[in-house]
Amino acid sequence: MTARPHLAALPKVVLHALVALVVAFAVLAGPATAQPAVLIGEIRVDASPLRAKGVGNYADLLEASLQRALEDRFAGRLGAGGSRLTVVLDRFELRGYGSGETDDGPLGFGIPGAGSLAADELAGTATLSDGGRVLAREPLRVALPPGQSGPWQSADFERRRAVALAESFAGWLARRL
């Protein structure tokens, strides 16, 4: 059995240096207090860039779904007189699914008939502002596999995929702001 060196066996100079290092770190780090969350008085979702790209009814669905999801995610931070959270959606894609497409990867080994491995995407920028002053700006892109929204045979599969993207976007935004 080998003996482990004990701190008392270290030279006093080394011990003093270690203690000084620990004290300096504690002083520089300061108290561990969480930053207070910014109160949000209003949430706006703008999908007009998607409408301009011809997304149509999906823009309306995403706007309404994201509005609800953000209100749910930020429920504990909503209050009169708070800041404004504005989200502008500028990219939305539902990729092919169930069509036999595969992601061949770098070596070219795909699985024929396995369905598309490409992800659905939703992207935009969230801006938190107060009285014209920007407090935070957060660009965000979420991607989900199409199969995460349930069976592709159901009539509302594309709608569920869009709603899932909106909910994921809201979840990630709540983590970041």
Present the secondary structure layout.
Blueprint: H1 12-29, E1 40-46, H2 48-52, H3 57-73, E2 83-93, E3 120-130, E4 133-144, H4 157-176
Parallel strand pairs: 1-2
Antiparallel strand pairs: 2-3, 3-4
Helix pairs in contact: 3-4
Walkthrough of the structure:
This protein is of the alpha+beta class and 177 residues long. The protein has a single domain (40-176), classed as 2-Layer Sandwich (Double Stranded RNA Binding Domain), CATH 3.30.160. The protein is built from 4 helices and 4 strands, in the order H-E-H-H-E-E-E-H. The protein has helices spanning 12-29, 48-52, 57-73, 157-176, and strands at residues 40-46, 83-93, 120-130, 133-144. A 4-stranded mixed β-sheet has the order 1-2-3-4. Helix 3 packs across helix 4 (157-176). The longest helix is centred in the last third of the chain and has 20 residues, at 157-176. The radius of gyration is 25 Å and the shape is globular.
CATH class division = Alpha Beta
Q: Which class best fits the helix and strand makeup?
A: alpha+beta
Question: How many discrete domains?
Answer: 1
- Fraction of helical residues: 25-40%
| Low-confidence region ranges | 99-116
Strand order of the largest sheet: 1-2-3-4
CATH domain fold name: Double Stranded RNA Binding Domain
Please report which band the strand proportion falls in: under 5%, 5-15%, 15-25%, 25-35%, 35-45% or over 45%.
15-25%
* Number of alpha- plus pi-helical segments: 4
Q: Got a strand count?
A: 4
Q: How does CATH name the architecture?
A: 2-Layer Sandwich
Q: Roughly how many Å is the radius of gyration?
A: 25 Å
